[in-house]
Fold:
Amino acid sequence: MENFKQWMQSNYTHNELADIANHGCSGGVNGMIYYAETEALYKRFAEDLHSIIAEYQDDTGDKPKYVTEELGDYVRFSNAVVWFCAEYVAFSITEGLYIEEVTA
Structure:
């Protein structure tokens, strides 16, 4: 079964992931723009997403604030979880670095 990191790598190029790592999701990322999209991703990958947040918390000793601020609203919470994890995973893959893409 595909996990969230694999999904990210299957759906975005390295440089798109670097954009997510450097600029976040709030500016608009194809497939994660609308609440319906992020809610579907949350439902599909909830266990993995919460593991990613736990990893972040283990690494930093803190919970991601913009996620915890949305605890009272399921739709906004699921959106925040997906965006946070997308940004965290994108940085773990790219370290925010771009690569030169070869065109044919």
